[in-house]
Every structure is written in C-alpha cells, then in structure tokens.
C-alpha cells in the first residue's frame, strides 16, 4: 500500500510583466476554504515577448477549523499570456514517470532535459479523513507541515504532468514516489490562458490510498524554462500583448469526501464538492 501523501496542484496561472498587486484574498466561511493568489512576471508586454512568471497560491481553513479541506480541482485563467511554443519542448508524461518509478524507482529522473517547464515548492498538512474529526484538527496530523518539491513537465499538446519530490524528513514518513504523478491541461481561450488541474484521489482525499486528507497551505511555482532548437531559443511562456494590466482568477474547489477504495486516479464524487472559492485580481504590465 502506498504511503499517504498530500496533494495539490500546481497551477498554470500566467500573469503579466511587472509587479503584481497585493495578493487577492477570499475569507473562509463555515463550509468554504479561504484562498489567496498573487503573480509576478518579468519580461516584455509586447506580443511574442518571452516572460517568466512566479505564481503564489494558498488556502486557509474554514471558520473554526484547524486545516483546510483537500482540493478536488483548481482552475485558473490569466489574460494575455500563452504557451504557443510548447511544441518545441521535449515531452515527459504521467505514464513515463509512473513507468520509471515502477521499474527502477527513477520516477521523474527519467524525464528528458528541457521537458520541465516549471518548478517550485509546496507546503501542506495531512490529517485523517474521518468524520470523527469533523473540525479538521491538526492535533493528529500525519505530517504538519509537509514540504514538497513541485515539478511540472510538458506532456505534449495542451497537457502537463505534475510530480512531487520529497527531501529526507520533509514530509513525515513520506518519500518521493508516495505521491503519484498527476495530469493537468492548459489551453488558450478568449484571450486567457486557462489551466485546469483535477486532484486525483491518491494526492488529495485518499492520500496514498489510505484514509488521509492532504490540504494545500501554500505553493510557490516559477515558470521560466526555455529550450533552444536549431540555434533559436524558445520560452515556454510568452506575452500575447498587454496595455495596462492583465486580469486573472483562481478557483479552488474543495471536497469533504470520506469514502475509501477509489482508484488512485479517481476524482471525488461531485456531490461531495464544497462551494468553489474564486480569487480575482490583476497585475500591471
């Protein structure tokens, strides 16, 4: 049985050139998690300019609770940024990472150079997912905090592959490979980069296939990778144009599902979803 692991998703929240405004915040209620989001991007505002983006996201507990609920999905939309040159980057898929882990424990070490398009860190807390612990207390936490390395790979087309790495003693008893790789997508729609990352059972509400909830506390992810093909350098992220500012939103959907026995890649039943919390804001060009 796999060991318990925290989940979150790394998000492709693409923002603009310059400094972001102060982080937007949504306060929690008795059923909702709280959410925060902020973005800074360096590079040019002109269409086609390569950009580097630092994304910071987080959730906080519902009123009266000690830990946030685990996430079922994160959806972000950012205006005026895209990844049209993803086709030039080598690929590394969820299936490749899984195969390498099952075969020899290499996991994401199998990914070809240049396939990683973002990396950062994530902090979380892991608590038992039982109704006997209705206030999500951290008193019996399995890992608090759990500090993970977060890696995002180009998986071909609009697909991304996410994977957590764990340093020794950084997440209680858990090691790299306890959390399986998981997929995400990013597409351009209506002038926005739209990134969707559903949270698999194995990394969220049935962490490691056991009755454990993994809750996001904070995430810091940097999208800055480039690749050179036939002497020309391509950036994974580019501006599609910006006059004054770019709007963004980050929607966090949490779950209170307490069942067990679902496949590692299953989603939580929609009936267990809590009301989505959406953070909106804008950043200067």
Structural notes for this entry:
The protein has one helix spanning 94-104; strands at residues 24-26, 34-43, 51-60, 71-79, 81-82, 116-128, 143-154, 159-165, 182-189, 192-198, 212-223, 226-229, 232-235, 238-239, 245-254, 277-284. The chain is mainly beta. The chain is globular and about 60 Å long. 4% of the residues lie in helices and 42% in strands. The longest helix is centred in the middle third of the chain and has 11 residues, at 94-104. It has a twelve-stranded antiparallel beta sheet, with no helix packed on it. A two-stranded antiparallel sheet has the order 5-14. It has a two-stranded antiparallel ribbon with strand order 12-13. It has one helix and 16 strands.
**Whole-Å distance between the termini?**
49 Å
Task: Give the neighbour order of strands across the main sheet.
Answer: 1-2-3-11-6-7-8-9-10-4-15-16
Report the helical percentage: under 10%
In the predicted model, the low-confidence regions spanning at least 5 consecutive residues are: 1-22
| Estimated share of beta-strand residues | 35-45%
| Number of E-type strands | 16
pLDDT averaged residue by residue: 86
Number of helices: 1
- Biggest beta sheet summary: 12 strands, antiparallel
Order of helices and strands: EEEEEHEEEEEEEEEEE
What is Rg? Answer: 18 Å
The secondary structure category is: mainly beta
Q: What's the shape? A: globular
């Amino acid at each position: 049985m796999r060991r318990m692991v925290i989940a979150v998703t790394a998000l492709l929240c693409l923002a603009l050139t310059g400094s972001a405004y102060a982080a937007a915040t949504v306060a929690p209620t008795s059923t909702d998690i709280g959410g925060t989001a902020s973005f800074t991007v360096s590079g040019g505002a002109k269409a086609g300019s390569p950009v580097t983006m630092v994304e910071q996201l987080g959730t906080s507990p519902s009123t009266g609770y000690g830990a946030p609920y685990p996430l079922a999905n994160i959806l972000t939309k950012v205006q005026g940024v895209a990844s049209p040159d993803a086709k030039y980057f080598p690929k590394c898929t969820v299936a490749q990472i899984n195969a390498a882990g099952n075969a020899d424990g290499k996991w994401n070490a199998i990914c070809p150079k240049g396939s990683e398009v973002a990396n950062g860190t994530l902090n979380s807390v892991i608590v038992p997912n039982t109704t006997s612990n209705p206030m999500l207390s951290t008193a019996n936490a399995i890992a608090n905090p759990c500090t993970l390395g977060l890696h995002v790979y180009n998986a071909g087309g609009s697909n991304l592959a996410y994977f957590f790495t764990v340093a020794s003693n950084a997440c209680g008893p858990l090691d790299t490979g306890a959390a399986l790789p998981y997929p995400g997508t990013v597409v351009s729609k209506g002038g926005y980069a739209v990134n969707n990352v559903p949270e698999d059972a194995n990394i969220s509400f049935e962490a490691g296939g056991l009755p454990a909830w993994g809750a996001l506390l904070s995430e810091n992810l940097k999208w800055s990778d480039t690749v050179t093909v036939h002497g020309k350098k391509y950036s994974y992220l580019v501006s599609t144009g910006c006059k004054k500012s770019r709007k963004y939103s980050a929607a966090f959907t949490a779950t209170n599902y307490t069942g067990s026995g679902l496949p590692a890649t299953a989603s939580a039943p929609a009936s267990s979803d809590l009301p989505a919390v959406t953070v909106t804001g804008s950043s200067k060009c």
